[in-house]
Amino acid sequence: MASHRLTAAWLNRVEGAGIPAIEIYCARQHFDYRDRPQIAELGHFFRDSPVKLHSVHAPTFTDEIWGRSGPDTHINITERIKGERIRWVDEIKRALEVAETIPFRYLIQHLGVSGQEFSEYSIDAGFTALEELTVFARQRGVEILLENIPNGLSSGERLNLFNNMTHLNMNYAFDTGHAHLLGNLEGEFDTMKARVRSLHVHDNDGKEDQHLFPLLDGYGAEGGTIDWAATMKMLRSRQGQYPLMLELKEVPEMQFPLLEMNRVFDKLEAA
């Protein structure tokens, strides 16, 4: 739904579907974390609703078209140029300030951008940025979680290396689809599991980051190749450590996506 502006009306549908907690993505066409009226509107909803804001995904682009307006819109906290890195840290701080109106527990953060190669310079830059951001987040009751993404900095092994090199002691958000792209979903989870505090659950064909609906046929949502019986057994091994959080791409022809999400939850729980 990140292509549509998030309103209280949309969230009322979430509540009606019985979904107890959500994550909001800071994509400005969807949720503009600098827009005080939008934040206030959603704040009123969460104050009166049983639905909880579990997490907020940090912004990854500053434009409203997923970074297609140019590379200078791609937020990267491992940027080596200090002035640019300060700019991106400031952008993420604005997202963290949402917690002053709408409390949430976790901010999901990328270390680098998709496809970025490993370098010690990037580790140093990421450390400098996150050292500042973790203090800023903690003052607002938020913990920053690093997500495994397809780059040379953010596999499970590399995230553990980052923790060992920087001593920031950061926890993780485990993304099933991203781990599948590396060809070793269970191995990635095993590497990260002690520090996993949240999930992104979605499927793909092992080649592209498609964010497909798990175990759901029709609507163009089929094609995923994750073994969900094995994956759910794996995820249940850390019972109570994290919620089952779906992160799915919109399917335009799907008339009732929230009902289909509940079907997915049922199928995953039965897997």
Characterization of the model:
The chain is α/β, with parallel strands linked by helices and 271 residues long. The chain has a domain of 187 residues: Divalent-metal-dependent TIM barrel enzymes (TIM Barrel). 38% of the residues lie in helices and 11% in strands. The chain contains nine helices and six strands; from the N terminus they run αβαβαβαβαβααβαα. A six-stranded parallel beta sheet has the order 1-2-3-4-5-6. Helix 3 links the parallel strand 2 and strand 3. Helix 3 runs parallel beside helix 4 and helix 5 packs parallel to helix 7. The mean pLDDT is 96.
Task: Write the topology of this structure.
Blueprint: H1 8-16, E1 21-25, H2 36-48, E2 52-57, H3 82-96, E3 106-109, H4 120-138, E4 143-147, H5 156-166, E5 171-175, H6 176-181, H7 185-192, E6 196-200, H8 228-236, H9 257-270
Parallel strand pairs: 1-2, 2-3, 3-4, 4-5, 5-6
Helix pairs in contact: 3-4, 5-7
